[in-house]
Amino acid sequence: MGVALNPIxxxxxxxxxxxxxxxxxxxxEQYCYSVLIFQFFFSNKFSFAKQSKINGLxxxxxxxxxxxxxxxxxxxxxxxxxxxxxxxxxxxxxxxxLIYYKVTDSSDDPINPKPNTxxxxxxxxxxxxWITFQKDMIITLEKPLxxxxxxxxxxxxVNVDIANNACLMIFKATNIIIHNIRVHHCKPQAPGxxxxxxxxxxxxxxxxxxxxxxxxxxxxxIDHNTLYDCQDGLLDVTRGSTDVTISNNWFKxxxxxxxxxxxxxxxxxxxxKVTVVYNHFxxxxxxxxxxxxxxxxxxxxxxxxxxxxxxxxxxxxxxxxSEANLFVAPTIGNKEVTWRKKNDTNEDRWDFxxxxxxxxxxxxxxxxxGGSVKKPNYSKEQNFKVVDAKFVRSLIRSSGVLRYNKNSIx
Length: 410
What we know:
By secondary structure, the chain is an alpha/beta fold. It has 5 helices and 30 strands. It has helices at residues 2-5, 21-58, 61-64, 118-124, 392-395; strands spanning 99-103, 129-133, 137-139, 145-146, 151-154, 160-163, 168-171, 174-179, 182-184, 192-195, 201-204, 212-215, 218-223, 226-228, 233-238, 242-247, 250-252, 254-260, 273-277, 280-281, 285-287, 291-293, 296-300, 303-305, 312-315, 319-323, 326-328, 338-340, 351-355, 358-360.
């Protein structure tokens, strides 16, 4: 190794012994020290490269798009090119006219939001807005936060909690990314007025206490958030909302988790299309992972860590393709994954299909008999490969808010 590396200009190790004993020892020390430095530097560099490759192989397709880049913080908008599923690529959220806005103030005024607060960025600033946060903060909203179209809320690099009162609403808006935020302990809100999109104060009716609620929204991507302990649900997609991707989130400690479709009578939700992929459901989740009405959902490569009533349910003839998920039934209680609300004639009119799912701890899935499995029919930019369910634990191991160390990447 000494000849090959030649770190201090020696032709060969034997030349160390042509001098006096004292010089010999000194030069041997210099040589050994240089070799050690060389080995340390290059072996560490190799290890980092090798580890990055290994981590990249373990990551799901969304994370692999941006997380291996050590300079992601300088290129935050790269994230917009990484989404898959019905939301498609979020390239309408980026471009030369993109406005970067940094939240430095955790306070909230629902009618006259101050500059540097989150509400100012989501309602007053017009155009394409990419919102980041200066530091760790807990934001307690006085009223629900309405998010304008073409807005990205990006919590990477800090710890941001929206908690302990009102939470997030996407109302008649499009092209929105919510990424790397903890939303929890959301409470119902009485009717009132609030600053809405385009800087207009609007009346808002009673709000149930969901973490994130979509109302007549489209092209929405909700990725790498941690949602838990809210008084109603964690995520509702309602009133004609469609083209939604829900990915890499961690849903835990909740009764009603995810509702797709407003109510049995809202037939406009027949056009709803939602992708639910790489999420972790549990522990301590009871039902609605998701519950779907009318529309179509592609549920793929998720981990279900138990349930009480059921994992996936529906009513009003919804269509659902469950593909390569891992369902781990609870130790005690209901082992059945699915639930169907019966109609007057007790007919099974719900299109529920299980394809390549894995069932552990005696879990079972009641499929719809007869007929073909409805495909997602993704466009090229929406399409992604659904991985074998045996890899699900690896695919979702970084679900929820990502840990960040300033000395290393995620």
